[in-house]
């Protein structure tokens, strides 16, 4: 029905029948040396245009569209939202915002919570699947998700309201010139929400969520060979959550709530000297979290990174090398705290060995203050087979140092000395076959991969002595297939498809890993005319094993549209869960039924 509606709008609006537009050539930058996505196994880029077409508000709204990514969200509005990549645990994905690592040092596994990450002003999201420690060090076993924000020129504003008494707004103002740029923005999201615990289980109390975010950024070119830039981002969230009250200790309505305040930022000097482009940067992130319940808890963590990187060109090859120093510290609810540090050097290069063969490689040495040293590497190649076909492959290794919670053995109980933990290690291999039509109007890629993680850290309890500690015990393996494609259909239509088969198992007993669906996929049918646009997104997941049972599979759909009244004013509308499907992303936690929102976007 929705696809028919989009088609009807296209006819009424007179969408062009002779559409000669080609798909853009996408470049990935999170590899430190720029490369084409088509030649980079495991790389994907979500553009700002795609974010707006999708109608995504927060990062968790769009990441699950990508093959191999599963979003673990405990509550639709403000519930903790973490990402698994290719079956790896939630703490094995490194998250960067403008190059700043923002993973939470006080989280048990060091994971990042995407629940409050507003996508306003985000220019692109780059996703690198598979071990990327040779580029970015610890935490990148499953991959890297890098968000890049943009400079603002003029005034931008949006306002939206809809179901569950939801209102949101954003305003940004800035000046962007060749010699300098300065901009600032603030956004607000407020909703009464729904019950975090599934309403189908008799939970009727609405759990609200508010988020306020703000940011500043600036740039100045000191000379043709030198420049400075800096940015800071702040966010504060408050969410009502549900808990596990006595006597049943099952998920149900409670008065529990959680709040967080976090900020991240960087300052960077850019300088051309000795035939190289140098970047010297300092970045930082901090987070404070509080959970208010019958068992209240408070956490805080901070991270500081010094980085020097030099970029250059040698014939057909581009290269980068540099050094980093990272320090993190965290205070945990139990009263324990600790500091961890790592000193690193790295190098990476990419180039065309022949007109058809592109090679890239990366090598990194990390020396941790407490857990020894680790050398990781990655090599990849892409070969042009002709007729639009590109065969590519990669092999990489990764490691993850124990989190601070694991290092201090938070909430451990044992008569024996606590085990000495080792870093987790990973090996990943993948091969991909991509194709692009001669006219540039269609592309697709199929990827086959294996990811193995050894010495995975887990919390275990001896049922005889009740000793409870963290140990290196688990070994996991994920085999997978990822299919993706995009095509321009004509008459203003475009279609994006993604599918993933993920076989993620615990090799110690052969059981499937929790919260990783075996089958998942998405499809987005977009349409754009002179002033009207619309997009229908359908997303599906199969059954998945979860703590306490099996979460049923689901299919859900969202419809998003816009009407540019003038070049400066656009009216927007979106419908979430179009078919009013009852579903859960995590067992026991409900998702909203059909909901609608209307808004206006201004650009001056």
Structure description:
The chain has 604 residues and is mainly β. The chain has helices at residues 2-13, 48-54, 60-63, 133-136, 404-407; strands at 27-28, 35-36, 43-47, 69-73, 81-85, 93-97, 100-101, 122-129, 143-149, 154-162, 166-176, 180-194, 207-223, 226-240, 257-273, 276-292, 297-314, 317-331, 337-352, 357-368, 373-386, 389-400, 424-436, 442-461, 468-490, 493-506, 511-512, 519-528, 532-541, 544-546, 549-551, 554-564, 569-576, 595-603. The chain has a 22-stranded antiparallel β-barrel. A five-stranded mixed β-sheet has the order 3-8-9-6-7. The chain has a two-stranded antiparallel ribbon with strand order 1-2. The longest helix has 12 residues, at 2-13. It is globular.
Protein traits:
single chain; 604 residues; mainly beta; 22-stranded antiparallel beta barrel; 5-stranded mixed beta sheet; 34 strands; globular; disordered N terminus
Mean pLDDT level: 93
> Mind summarizing the main beta sheet?
22 strands, antiparallel, barrel
The share of residues in helices is under 10%
Binned strand content: over 45%
Overall shape: globular
What Rg is obtained from the alpha carbons, in whole angstroms?
24 Å
Helix and strand layout, with pairings?
Layout (H helix, E strand, L loop, with lengths): L1 H12 L13 E2 L6 E2 L6 E5 H7 L5 H4 L5 E5 L7 E5 L7 E5 L2 E2 L20 E8 L3 H4 L6 E7 L4 E9 L3 E11 L3 E15 L12 E17 L2 E15 L16 E17 L2 E17 L4 E18 L2 E15 L5 E16 L4 E12 L4 E14 L2 E12 L3 H4 L16 E13 L5 E20 L6 E23 L2 E14 L4 E2 L6 E10 L3 E10 L2 E3 L2 E3 L2 E11 L4 E8 L18 E9 L1
Parallel strand pairs: 6-9
Antiparallel strand pairs: 1-2, 3-8, 4-5, 6-7, 8-9, 10-11, 10-34, 11-12, 12-13, 13-14, 14-15, 15-16, 16-17, 17-18, 18-19, 19-20, 20-21, 21-22, 22-23, 23-24, 24-25, 25-26, 26-27, 26-28, 28-29, 29-32, 30-31, 32-33, 33-34
């Amino acid at each position: 029905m929705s696809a028919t509606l989009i088609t009807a709008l296209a006819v009424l609006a007179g969408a062009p029948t002779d559409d000669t537009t080609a798909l853009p050539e996408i470049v990935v930058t999170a590899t430190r040396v720029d490369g084409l996505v088509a030649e980079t196994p495991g790389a994907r880029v979500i553009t700002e245009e795609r974010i707006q077409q999708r109608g995504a508000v927060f990062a968790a709204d769009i990441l699950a569209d990508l093959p191999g990514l599963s979003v673990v969200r405990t509550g639709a509005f403000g519930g903790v939202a973490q990402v698994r990549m290719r079956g790896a645990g939630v703490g094995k994905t490194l998250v960067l915002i403008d190059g700043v690592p923002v993973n939470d040092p006080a989280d048990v596994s060091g994971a990042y919570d995407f629940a409050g990450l507003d996508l306003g002003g985000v220019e692109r999201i780059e996703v690198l699947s598979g071990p990327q420690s040779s580029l970015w060090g610890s935490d990148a076993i499953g991959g890297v998700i890098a968000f890049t924000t943009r400079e603002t020129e003029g005034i931008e504003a949006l306002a939206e309201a809809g179901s569950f008494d939801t209102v949101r707004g954003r305003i940004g103002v800035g000046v962007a010139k060749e010699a300098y740029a300065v901009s600032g923005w603030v956004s607000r999201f407020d909703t009464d929400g729904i019950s975090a615990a599934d309403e189908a289980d008799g939970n009727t109390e609405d759990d609200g969520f508010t988020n306020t975010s703000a940011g500043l950024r600036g740039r100045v070119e000191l000379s043709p060979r030198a420049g400075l830039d800096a940015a800071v981002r702040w966010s504060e969230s408050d969410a009502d959550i549900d808990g596990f009250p006595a006597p049943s200790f099952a998920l149900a309505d409670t008065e529990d709530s959680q709040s967080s305040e976090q900020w991240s930022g960087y300052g960077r000097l850019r300088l051309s000297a000795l035939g190289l482009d140098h970047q010297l940067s300092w970045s930082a992130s901090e987070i404070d979290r509080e959970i208010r319940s019958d068992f209240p808890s408070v956490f805080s963590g901070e991270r500081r990174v010094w980085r020097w990187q030099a970029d250059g060109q040698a014939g057909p090859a581009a290269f980068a090398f540099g050094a980093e120093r990272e320090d993190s510290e965290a205070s945990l609810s139990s009263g324990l705290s600790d500091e961890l540090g790592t000193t690193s050097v790295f190098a990476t290069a990419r180039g065309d060995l022949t007109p058809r063969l592109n090679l890239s490689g990366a090598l990194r040495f990390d020396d941790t203050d407490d857990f020894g040293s680790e050398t990781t590497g990655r090599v990849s190649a892409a070969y042009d087979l002709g007729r639009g076909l590109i065969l590519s492959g990669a092999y990489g290794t990764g490691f993850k140092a124990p989190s601070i919670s694991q290092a201090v053995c938070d909430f451990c109980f044992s008569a024996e000395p606590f085990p000495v933990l080792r870093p987790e290690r990973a090996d990943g291999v993948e091969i991909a076959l991509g194709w692009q039509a001669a006219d540039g109007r269609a592309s697709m890629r199929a990827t086959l991969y294996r990811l193995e993680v050894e010495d995975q850290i887990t919390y275990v309890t001896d049922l005889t002595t009740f000793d409870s500690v963290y140990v290196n015990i688990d070994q996991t393996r994920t085999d997978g297939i990822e299919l993706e494609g995009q095509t321009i259909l004509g008459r203003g239509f475009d279609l994006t498809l993604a599918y993933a088969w993920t076989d993620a198992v615990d090799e110690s007993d052969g059981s499937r890993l929790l919260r990783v669906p075996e089958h998942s996929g998405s499809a987005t049918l977009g349409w754009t005319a002179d002033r009207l646009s619309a997009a229908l997104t359908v997303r599906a997941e199969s059954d998945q094993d979860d703590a306490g049972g099996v979460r049923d599979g689901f299919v859900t759909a969202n419809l998003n549209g816009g009407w540019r009244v003038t070049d400066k004013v656009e009216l927007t509308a979106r419908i979430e869960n179009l078919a009013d499907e009852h579903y859960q992303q995590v067992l026991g936690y409900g998702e909203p039924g059909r909901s609608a929102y209307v808004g206006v976007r201004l650009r001056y």
